What we know:
Layout: H1 2-12, E1 15-16, H2 17-24, H3 28-38, E2 40-42, E3 50-53, E4 64-67, E5 70-73, H4 78-88, H5 95-102, H6 107-115, E6 119-124, E7 127-132, H7 136-143, H8 151-154, H9 159-163, H10 171-182, H11 188-198, H12 204-213
Antiparallel strand pairs: 1-3, 2-3, 4-5, 6-7
Helix pairs in contact: 4-6, 10-11, 10-12, 11-12
Amino acid sequence: MATKYEELFEENVVMTIESLMLATRRPRESILRDLRGIGYYSCYNARGKFYTLSGTPDFDCYGLWKYRNAFFSARRTLLDTAEHLIGASDAGYTHSELRRILGIGVQNSLRQLAMAGKVVRSQVGAQYVYFGKDSAGAQGEKRGAMPVEPIERKTRMPEAIQALAHPDMAPELVVDILVAVLRGHGTDSEAHGYLRRTGSPATAQQVAAGFRHYGIVSKKPRIRITT
């Protein structure tokens, strides 16, 4: 079976699970099990739908390899890749700098990494710069951002806002949800759709929980009856 996959990937280089299912007449789970035995990479863009064998990528100095519309990383996942690039950089990265390197937007990933304490976010001039958690000092010096301090530590929420904080939700997510409501997205599903488009990491369950916690009544769409 390994030879069959090698032949397929030699001809196509990058394939989707659907194309592999069609070519091998095997179910998805069996194909993934086969690929794990051979060794493979899945892309970090396009929702990970593209696959290639582990010996195929010719990674560049960033550990990246791009084939047509499929982008692969030696670190495999987008989160791990962004964290590694930031930590290994000379002076940290802004979102736009990382986007140029990776080829896709990583705002959501950066927010997750910062909230998890895996990178340090600092404001330098009019933009945010992301530094490695263990190399922020040296990187900040080269960026001209001394002292380097996470922006979250510089600004404390007023007590009145702290009193409104959700007990199980980061303040940033609460703000995202309330902003969505203020922008006229009156149902939790509409608010979640809006937040997804803006890159917020808020899940549908968190948005619904926010609506319940703050007593936001979902507004049903108006139905116009004509005669």
